[in-house]
């Protein structure tokens, strides 16, 4: 039994951030009911990488394990009646609609908390529920760009580069997950439910706690170098360097040790402050040329012998095959009834007494509608009537 066994989560979110947060709650044992429109949640129809799957694309598959699917039309009177009934006994409600949409659907905090004052209501938005940007699209790349993070890496004069992950979505998901857990703890102590507001702009901004403090307190601007230095607020050499057969990453070495490792005596006498901060381009180029004649394995061995922080640059194939990944059990594998054998990242937190576990793979749209509503007190006649009026979907693909 997981830590959150016995708690019920209504997941009315779409895309990545909301479903990822809800999945983490499900991984800890909560009964997560994914509330979808009759046609299925948006992510079912927008596969990353074009990988569509058999009946469930990989994007949806990866973000919706340990959930049951309930397909209802929240715009219909019957669908709203179903939702109000479920809210009566729910513990957490998650939505990431644009500002104003929850109110129009009758699932805003004031409405639902009046039904269930103990409810933890998690509202996720792009920029905040109100304010000058409230109606802007909360999309990962747009928030990466707005956050300032792109201007801390890369070459001066070249276009900023986005992270290679859906970074803002992921950190927002974890922020919402953290907020839901904290609110549940407060409720256990006091009996009080509450609203938890999370927005993508604040999530990615506060993630840069150190960098932004260097700017706001230390007044140091983001000055990118001509060489591809990996971060404006760390001294050179810092970044990735080509070898004869690939790339390595090098982080903040001492110059005497680096000189010995690379047979580059010119590095030994460099002043850390002058060369590392004020002459980053020349330092970067000097190290780049010294590393270039070696293979990745050879240069990493040399650097390791000097106690210098360095490591390989992996692609996904390398990561999946790494022995530490295997040792940690980072990936889980299971057989899905429609998608076949699945290998996917698993559970990043390990509990000695209540481990996370896979209870079910991602559901088909409305796969559990009848099961969920019967448990909520709806009769077979009720279900037939709701289906006839188009308020619910029952086990659609």
UniProtKB/TrEMBL annotation:
Keywords attached to this entry: Transferase
Record InterPro entries: CoA-transferase_III_domain, CoA-Trfase_fam_III, CoA-Trfase_III_dom3_sf, CoA-Trfase_III_dom_1_sf
Signal peptide start-end: none
GO molecular function: CoA-transferase activity
Source domain of life: Bacteria
PANTHER family found in the cross-reference section: BLL6097 PROTEIN, SUCCINATE--HYDROXYMETHYLGLUTARATE COA-TRANSFERASE
Name this polypeptide is given: CoA transferase
